[in-house]
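Record type: ASSEMBLY
Status: queued
Input:
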Amino acid sequence: MKNKGRKYACVDTCFLQGVDGVIATIEISILPGLPNVEVVGLCDSSIRESKERVRSAIRHCGYEFPKGRIIISLSPAYLHKSGSSFDLPMALGILIASGQVYQATNRCIAYGEISLQGEIHTIPGSIPRLMALKDYHEGLRLIPNEESEQARLLEVGVSCVRSLSEAIHAIGKDDPIPCMPPLCVLPGTDTADTGNDSSGDEDISSEQVLDYSCLRGQDAASRAILLSACGFHNMILIGSPGTGKTMAARIIRGILPPMTLEEKLDWLRIESTVSLLDSNMIMERERPFRYVHHTCTASALAGGGRPPIPGELSRALHGVLFLDEMAEFNPRVLDLLRQPLETKEIVISRNGSVSTFPADFLLVGAMNPCRCGKLLDSPAECTCSVSTRRNYKNRISGPILDRIDIVTKMKPMNKDTLKETLVSGRHAESPAIRRRIKELWERQYQRCKENQVEPMRNGEVMMIDMASLFRINDTTMDYAIYAGNQLNVSARGMKHILRVARTVADWDEEQDVNEEHVMEALQYRMNTEEFTYA
Amino acid sequence: MKPEEDKLAADMFVSEMQTRRILSGGEIRKMMHNGRIQSHRDFLLRPINEMLPIFDGLRSEKRNEYIALHRDMEKEMENRLRMLSSYRIRSCSQEDPEYPKCLRELPGMPMILYWRGDESLMNESFYRVAIVGTRKPSVYGERVTRYFTENLAAEKLVIVSGLARGIDTIAHRAAIAMHGKTIAVMPCGLDLIYPPENKGLLDTIENEGLIISEMPPGQQALRQYFPARNRIMSGISDAIAIMEAGEKSGTLHTANFAAAQGKDVFVVPGSVFSPMGKGNMQLIKDGASLLSEPEDILARIKDASFFRKLDNINKEWSVDSLKEKISENPEALSLDEIHDVLLHVLFEQEMTMEEIISETCLPYKKVARCLSNMEVNREIEVHQERYVLTFRF
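Status: finished
Output:
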């Protein structure tokens, strides 16, 4: 061995920086001197701790922890590093450097946390790391076995190892073959195209408890929810406690079309940096549903910390972000939504490091009509003063309302309807609606393509493209403007009305938007005076 | 004779009977009510022998006068009709469906009306304002008359006046100048012209408006008929506006009639020092509405139009027939039909959207769209989640 006598080894690894994987190199040099392990290269304490785990694991696998002064250097040295995924490459490096293990290939890349007994575990961040691994062609790729499914999903050829011994065995082989079957297909993405409809329906079975039919009796809300899903319109549900706002939000998730493979990977990339993925999360095609409580802090919502990790906004990627009791949120936290709702990403700046996380989600907010909650159903019992009501509503700032297309009210369930729902049992209406919405999304994308606009859904279209893209003729536009004047709708309010009108027309299978569609869209506007009446 | 001419002749005969005080309108109505005659036209059109028993209970002179009149008329009628044919006068009575609805509902209105010109101006679809005032207006009176008439005519209101000298003439002329519609209510037969200098104006009104009178052709304008004419003027109008009235002006009669008929009376304030404005001041003291800008009248007319619309809906909307239509195929209802249904249910009570839907069984989509449109048109407002009819539109 060429480095014999020099007691030096070099192992590559990969770590998480924001939501990206970064390839790093670990160099190990064993020098004569007092037994000591030194880790350098902007490491935090989680990495310094790993030398104890590594020492124990090496002994447990029957090897000798070398004596002498061991220097472990992580490069690039200018990036802050943290996490326990450096255990495995450090252990391998020490064994190689001390000559106890033979490395068949010139280089290898490895990561994983090691237990004291030498078992290898995954840590959050698997998808970004695996993505980075895809571009690594210099040698063997070793990953914890727990990430095998992700690797298949991303079609990365890797060797999955369960323990340090297996890893040692793998790098010792002359001709390392990735021990994985080459790739697998995300269930449903392709089968749906081949016309296998039943598989699509089965996926929803888990959501069937919250079928669309649960909204029976909520004429306005059920329609608003359809439109919201159909055009990806941000929405606020207003209703007294117990009218089913949360349920309605969950139903939206059930009628949004399943994620495409691309969206799925996008979301997994974010989600994996925060949590460990289980196979359910990988196989599932449902869109994420993030239920955010009103005590949520700014950094939990937007992302933050050191190193910055994505918050709820990003974890709801391509899915539903549900803000319960929206008016109870700290207004400053709520205002964080402004930027992501506009640009579909959020920028977190901390101590000079700037991380950009994607934040493309459907915002569904729920709020009470007033602080005591009785204003809608039994106004006589409402104890709120006019100023309390105004203050309550003002907690949601104008710029946020400016980004919400649909406002709808939920009514307490009528006893008769309730009985009907209870007796008639489950009707799986969601699957059919979901198929319909999928078609309508395709049509919206298609329409954008025909107009040489970047494909987007109705709820994402900016004012400038509207008239031509939405096919709103002059008379309809005149009517809309007249209606806007009559009802004191602001210019930005008109934007929402036109967007929603387009979605209504889509749902009605109409080529052009006509006045009736505008009329219906007017039902879902935010009426600013509405909640201040005495 | 043609049936049209028959009708006119019979009406003229009855009018003649009334002016000669052979029988009053009330007596004729009573006879019709008791079934002794089928129609007032029987007096001329039925053989005289059949009609004579009717006079049994009355003074014998009346019967003789009737026979004499009948004899005269039989000779004269053909000549008279020939003479009148160039005037295109038509008649209608309370028995006929074309009798103006606005007059039918009021007490003391003439049994027979004669008219020349466009009788559709008496329809419900038009709103009429009587503009009346003194025969000798001041400069100020002329000016306000022109100002209000022009503005109201431009808003498609029909200007009603009496073709008298002074304010009436100015009002008619101003309406015609604005290409608006105008109705002249005459105190004399429609083949005559009173006052004579307004002949040219009368011809214009015949072509572009309507002339009416309760007097049979040939009847001269007599001073004692003027107040009677005024009651018709206020009767056919939705509101009356008094431009300038002296202390004992006949215009005040019109105002009294209008008030008795439940019409809105608007008065333009005059100068405190002017004798021409004394009548105006008295009316204002008596509680007439002050008229200082055309919007005062327009707003009131709009309310009236709204109630009239409601009235029609309530009459025409048969709950059962529409409910049947709704239950058969709610999707087939047009937005206008739904609009009527909603106006009807909201007229009875203000409701939330849910209540409307459960009351009418209409699909949400239609109701929502229609309600939005009604809100845009300011027909309804939302108060505490409930849709309420508004009175300004």
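Annotation: The first helix of chain B runs from residue 3 to 19.
Annotation: The two ends of chain B are 50 Å apart (CA to CA).
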